[in-house]
Structure formats: structure tokens, C-alpha cells
Amino acid sequence: MYYDHVAQVEMERWSRGRTVLVGDACQAVSLLAGQGASMGVGGSFVLGEELARAGSVGEGLERYERRWRPVVEERQRAARRGTSWFLPTTSGRLRLRRLFLRWSALPGVDRWVATSLSGKPSRVVKDLGPVASPGS
Ligand SMILES: Cc1cc2nc3c(=O)[nH]c(=O)nc-3n(C[C@H](O)[C@H](O)[C@H](O)COP(=O)(O)OP(=O)(O)OC[C@H]3O[C@@H](n4cnc5c(N)ncnc54)[C@H](O)[C@@H]3O)c2cc1C
Questions:
Q1: Residues of the chain above pLDDT 70, percent
Q2: Which of 31, 70, 72, 97 is the most core-located residue (most Cβ within 10 A)?
Q3: Tens-digit pLDDT profile for residues 78-136
Q4: Average pLDDT score over residue span 41-57
């Protein structure tokens, strides 16, 4: 048995002045998405990149949110769509899920399952790369 409150965090703004939120504080996707830690690291990486590139702290914080928020929102939507699959409420649905998981090992089906559970692949995530060191 596992009993917990499952919640996502949605904030109108992620920063005020020079104070900024990262990780679950502004973008918790919940265990339904199962990638909150990676999302926290990814968002912090983007924040670092944008602060390094921007002419001011305010500009960096704004660019961080503009770039990373759509990725978070897609993951949160995907998690909400998958709620009934993740937490089946009847034994029939549970049996269906077991069957589905067996099929998901098949080539082609595996990709479809990954996309429907974790959201569409994102260009922002694909483009994450090494941060240039100052002066380079
Ligand atoms: C059941 C469950 C399963 C999960 N499974 C996965 C998974 O498989 N993969 C995955 O990637 N993610 C998973 N997650 C999500 C992941 O754990 C979180 O997204 C991640 O830990 C968020 O990191 P964070 O640093 O933003 O916040 P946290 O890890 O919550 O860190 C915040 C820290 O701040 C501390 N703190 C709070 N208030 C104060 C204060 N006033 N002063 C000082 N310190 C304070 C807290 O004690 C905590 O240590 C799961 C979460 C749950 C609940």
C-alpha cells in the first residue's frame, strides 16, 4: 500500500526581483510524471545558461522561464492525461494495464508508450549542452 497526496505545482511567475524558484518549488510534475528530479536539474541548467548569456539578472530570469516553462507544462499535461493509467481504479483496468505493459515491449509500441507517458520530445531538452565557461 502507498498513500500520499499527489500534487503538481503551478506558479504564475517563477521569479521576483533577484529571487528565483527552481525544481519542485515552481514546477513539480508529481510522481505521475516520474521525472521531477531530472526536470529540476534540467531547469537549473537552463537557468545557469540564461544567466551566463544575459546582460542582466532580470533578463536571464525572464529568459529562463520563457524557455523552460513550456517543457514543464507539457510534462504536467502528460502526467494528468496518464492518471487513470498510472492509478487504475478497477481490477479490469489493472488487468488491461498489465496486458498493455506486455505489448509495450514490442518495437514501435515502445516509442508510442514512452511519448504518451512522458510527453512529446522537446527541442529545448535536446539542445541542452555543455555551458560555455566564462571568457570562452
Ligand atoms: C513518491 C515519489 C516518487 C518520485 N519518483 C521520481 C522518479 O522516479 N524520478 C524522478 O526524477 N523524480 C521523482 N519524484 C520527484 C522528485 O523526488 C522531485 O521532483 C525532486 O526531489 C525535486 O527536487 P527539489 O530539489 O526541487 O526539491 P526537494 O527534493 O523537495 O528538496 C527541497 C529541500 O528543501 C528542504 N526545505 C524545505 N523547506 C525548507 C526550509 N524552510 N529551510 C531549509 N530547507 C528546507 C527540504 O527538506 C528538502 O530537502 C518522485 C517524487 C515522489 C514524491
A1: 90
A2: 72
A3: 899 888 888 888 999 999 888 888 888 888 887 777 776 666 677 788 777 765 555 55
A4: 96
Number of H helices and number of E strands within the chain? 7, 2
Pocket test for ligand 1, best of 8, 9, 24, 38 (most atoms within 8 A of CB): 24
Q: Rounded CA gap, 64 and 15, in Å? A: 10
Residue 66 alpha carbon to ligand 1 centre in Å: 23
The helix-helix angle for 57-81 and 109-118 (nearest 10°) equals: 120
Give the residue whose CA is nearest to atom 19 of ligand 1.
36
CA dist 27 and 10 (Å) reads 6
pTM of the model: 0.83
